[in-house]
Amino acid sequence: DGGITQSPKYLFRKEGQNVTLSCEQNLNHDAMYWYRQDPGQGLRLIYYSQIVNDFQKGDIAEGYSVSREKKESFPLTVTSAQKNPTAFYLCASSSTGTAGAYGYTFGSGTRLTVV
Amino acid sequence: AQSVAQPEDQVNVAEGNPLTVKCTYSVSGNPYLFWYVQYPNRGLQFLLKYITGDNLVKGSYGFEAEFNKSQTSFHLKKPSALVSDSALYFCAVRFAAGNKLTFGGGTRVLVKP
Fold first, then answer.
1. How confident is the model at residue A101 (pLDDT cuts 50, 70, 90)?
2. Do β-strands B73-78 and B64-68 pair in parallel, antiparallel, or remain unpaired?
3. B98 pLDDT band (50/70/90 cuts)?
4. What is the mean pLDDT of chain A?
5. A111 to chain B: which residues are within 8 Å by CB?
6. Where are the extended beta strands (E) located within A26-109?
7. Residue of B21, B50, B100 to mutate, interface with A, max A Cβ within 10 Å
8. Which residue of A has its CA nearest to B44?
9. With an 8 Å Cβ cutoff, are A45 and B100 in contact?
10. What is the 3-state secondary structure (H, E, C) of B22-60?
11. Which of A63, A83, B44, B107 is the most exposed place for a label (fewest CB within 10 A)?
């Protein structure tokens, strides 16, 4: 079945460590997105990519980095510069085009906790 | 600039009663509108979308939404709520010129038995 997979489901990070969250999709979608969600809160866009080897900062990119070397993969690294990384991270993908009629498909999320 | 608002942080409803979750948007063109639902510790699931055509859109799990262009609204409705409908609901809008969705802040729905 086509879908979008995030791993791991739970991740624990020590202070000062970088960690990488995985996001893989087999939907042949061009665009991929990373969101951060804090308890009881909405979604905040971290980074997005509309094509391989290109990505743009979202609203809260500081302390995060991404790469898009393959169409299927869009990993997110939470660096030690991110002062409050404990949150639920969601990856999404979508088709692109002038029709604009496509919604997003979301992964099941990664819960990151700083210990 | 495009924006979308969900004016209620939480909606409480008794099981069996009608459920409405409000969404309004700001746009200078024709929007594409979406509703998603999120259960605890899960990703967002697509419920329904409005692209064009009939203003009343039917989606998953018995939900429907009505597009009202004059009021720039896209309220989500369910005639008879279930306890299992308790979740976080997000409205989102996309405009023809761009590909990103803009999400509302979310509305928590609590359906009491």
1. low
2. antiparallel
3. low
4. 91
5. 41
6. 31-37, 43-51, 54-57, 64-66, 76-78, 87-94, 105-106
7. B100
8. A106
9. yes
10. CCEEECCCCEEEEEEEECCCCCEEEEEEECCCCCEEECH
11. A83
- Cα nearest neighbour of B48 on chain A: A103
- How near does any CA of chain B get to the CA of A76, in Å? 17
Rounded CA gap, A55 and A64, in Å?
A: 13
Contacts of A33 in chain B (CB under 8 A): 100
- Which has more confidence, A86 or B28? A86
CB of A59 within 8 A of CB of A53?
no
- The per-residue pLDDT for range B50-92, each reduced to its tens digit, is 988 889 999 999 999 999 999 999 999 999 999 999 999 999 9
d(CA A15, CA B12): 40
